[in-house]
Each structure stands twice: as C-alpha cells, then as structure tokens.
Specification:
Blueprint: E1 2-5, E2 8-11, H1 12-24, H2 30-43, H3 50-61, H4 65-87, H5 92-102, H6 112-124, H7 128-145, H8 165-168, H9 176-213, H10 234-245, H11 254-265, H12 271-283, H13 288-305, H14 317-331, H15 342-351, H16 353-364, H17 371-385, H18 394-411
Antiparallel strand pairs: 1-2
Length: 420
Amino acid sequence: MLAYHHNRQISSEEQQLYDHLLYWVEVESPRQLIERFKMLLIEGKGYSDPTIWSALKKILDSKQIEHEFRFVLNRCARILINHWLMQSGSHEPVCQLVELLTKPPARLSQTQVSRKLRRLLQGFKQTEEYANLQRLVENLNRAMRVENEGDKPLGTLIRRYPALYQYCVLDENSTPEHQKKVQAIQAKRQQKFEIDLSRYFISRLRQARNSRIITPGSDGRIVQLAKNPTLLSQPALDFALKQFAGRVNGSYTHRDLARQFLTYNDRTRYYGDFKEELYEYLTAAIDVDYGKHQFNRQLYDQLQRILPESDSQQLNEFLLLRTCSKLLNFLVVESPQHPQHYVFLDLANNLGATRTIALLLKIVLLCYKVRPHLNKRFSILFNHYRADTRDEVFWLVESLENLNVACSIHFGKVKFPGLR
C-alpha cells in the first residue's frame, strides 16, 4: 500500500520505519537513539526488531531506492534532530548524528544490506539534504563556541517562536505523523508562553495598582513581579503590553478599532472605496513625520496596485483576504525567491519593533485568515538570517518577540484583563 506525501510515494514499510523512530525518540536518551540509528541505518548488521529490519530490507530492495534513499535517510535523521532541538535545545547529539553520516564506521559487516547501505551513504553525501544537515551542524558548532548569547546564531532561538515551526522545522518530506508531533510541541510551547505572559501582565497590573495606593512607610504588601518570558527588556515589554492589550486611541483598543472599521465598511459599496478607507485606517498608526517622507505614498501606491480591475466590485471576503495578503508581502517580505525587505527594515528602524508589529496587527485583525500568511513572512526572514548572530539582527529578534506578545494577546487561548 502506498501513501502520498508532497508528491512522494511513501510505502507502508517506510511509514513503519518513521513510526518506529517517532516512538523511540520519546523513550530513549540521545546516546541510545544514536546507537539505534547507527545499527539500523549505518551498519545494517541486523536489528533487534525483526519487523523493522524486514521493512528496511524491503525499502532497500525497491526499484526507486537510488533516488529515494536521500529522502528516507534525511527524514529518519530529522525525526531525531527536530526532537532534540525543540525539546531540550541539545546541540551535541545532533552533531554526533551528522558525524555518523559523514564518517560511517570503517569496518562494516559484509552483508548484502551493509554493502548497499555503504554505497547509498556515499551517494547521500552529494545531496542537498546532506548539505543542509552540514549547515545545521556548522551553525550549532558556532553557537557552542561562543559564551555571549548575543553572538549565537539567530537559528538557535527557533524554540522561542512556535508560530514559525511549520515553516522552519518541517520540510516538504515531513510525514503526517511527524507534522502532528511538531504541532503538539507547538501547541504546548504556545500555551506555556501565553500563561507566562499573562502572569507577568497581571503581576505588573497589581504592582502598578499598589504603587498608587501604598505610601512610604505603609505596611502594604509588595507585589512580586513575575518573570519576564520574553527577550525584551522590562520597559520594552511593558510598552508592548500597553500597545497590544491597552487602549491606543482614546478608550479603544486595536481590536475595537478593527471592529469599527469592518462595521463601517460593511456599507462600503465599492472595493476601490474600501482601499481608500483602508489607507486612512493604517496610516492613523504611523508617525506623521515618518509617514510624510515617503512611506504613506508608497503604501497608497501599493494599495492602488492591488486588483485595480476589481475597484468597481463590491467588497467581499476574497478581496479582503487578497488585499491583506498583498499588504503583508509589501510590508514584511514577498517570498523566499524575492527576500527583499527594505520596507520592513525601514519601519523597524524608524518606528521601532512594537509599533511596526502593531501596524501588521491592524491588518490581521481585519482578516484572521491571513495570520498564517504573516507567520510565513516572518519564517522567510528567520531562515534568511538564521546564520547571523542575534546581535546582528536584533531588530528581527525584537520584532519576533513583539509578534509573540501581540498574537498571544489577540489570538491565544489565555484571556488578558481589560481586552474586550
């Protein structure tokens, strides 16, 4: 029986192999897993589980194995690597595993399986999958050599950004089972961050309330501030919380303003008129001096270029989704093939990370369906800069931390006091 995944046929034997490793990665230590991987996929000299050993032999006997082995071996390695990196951030076992692929044991038992594995392993070294594993090890080794956190590669922070897992951890050959595992880790990490952020937020509110009512010399209790769950400084986090959970226009929050805009534009007759109103809605969040230089004009021109043939049509869900998607491409980055992000860099450097993310939030609050598109924009930037040090791209780190805060408050499962 064959399953299809990302245009590849995955046999039942291949699926057995992946499921087997997905089970043991939860049970065994990295040392035990590396030994298991070595015995099964490097040495090929017999295996304690006869069912898996039989499945491997069938995989190696398939007609497509010369082409398909690169995908099978890479997926097996990635199951272990992704688990170690996301669960504990362990670098050493990842390097040891890739070393096995680079320098397999010199003496292998001369069985048919071991000879075939030796030949296929040599071919694997010429593939893009192997090159990607080598680049990963280079980044991890670089991170292990430096003591200053700011000198570590951006890629070592992936555990902090669950919203990017789908695009930065999974690849086109990830099996459905592996996707489910990553999604479970993603949900767990996101929930923990939301709870930690809520605790900090509530303790900050209590601390502020007490500072207004406790006079010097009083016996009022001091509120202990909960741990800051972000990489932002305390003042920067407080500003972000005020921006994303507080009132930004009189008594209105960002969510209130988005609802008002959508309600008003239910009566907007034409799509062209909607774009004019959208321009006013977005530029209200832009510093006047910054906007009048060139940004406002760029934004206006961009809006006019989006589906001009539909200007005389009534606004509908498709037009709203397409408009918001195109705006995020313009404001953040278009694609991996065209990773230019001058507009975003300029926004972050002039408005700061918090106000820049607030601008993006205003768009997502108009169309929740576009949120995955925003996550993908940031995954493109993350992958583009993953080898740069954190200090070199601190503007991106600040933006990702603010994105975490904004999305947790507005789209998370934990309720924040005062947000309607």
